[in-house]
Amino acid sequence: MKTFSPTPKDIDRQWFVVDAQDQVLGRLASQIAHRLRGKHKPEFAPHMDNGDFIVVVNCEKIKVTGAKMTNKKYYRHSGWVGGLKTTSLGDMLAQTPTRVLATAVRGMLPKNRLGRAMLKKLKIYVGPEHPHAAQNPQPLTFPQ
After folding, report:
1. What span, in angstroms and rounded, lies between the C-alpha atoms of 19 and 57?
2. Would you say 36 and 52 are in contact if contact means Cβ atoms under 8 Å apart?
3. CB 15 within 8 A of CB 132
4. Mean pLDDT of successive 10-residue segments in the chain (144 residues)?
5. Do the domain assignments include residue 19?
6. Which residue, 54, 75, 106, 135, has fewest beta-carbon neighbours within 10 Å?
7. Which CATH number does the domain housing residue 113 bear?
């Protein structure tokens, strides 16, 4: 018996919509990364991008446990001396709530061009509306 290796013609991408309201950030991000990578499919191959498209709505209503709203920090650096900027999770959710979930999912994907291609299939929106109705996305729920 030969080992099956999928080719690009074997890839069947589907569209799913996820409601992030009252979902825990880390658990939701790990489930989304699992779907983006395609690990739920029997024809999964680690060297190929065969995951699905995920549309996330209501990302501003995401929940975290404990005191992460004030204690969790996001760091970025300008490249200049003393250019380290710090933002708390609560401030980030107030300013750009889509970036919180995108950063969490990005950390769970491969750190190469394959991971960057997988992240492009993630669409995150504030509020319950999204412009992908033409793709007929199926609702997807994750256990809490």
Report:
1. 5
2. yes
3. yes
4. 88 96 96 97 93 97 96 97 97 96 98 97 97 97 83
5. yes
6. 75
7. 3.90.1180.10
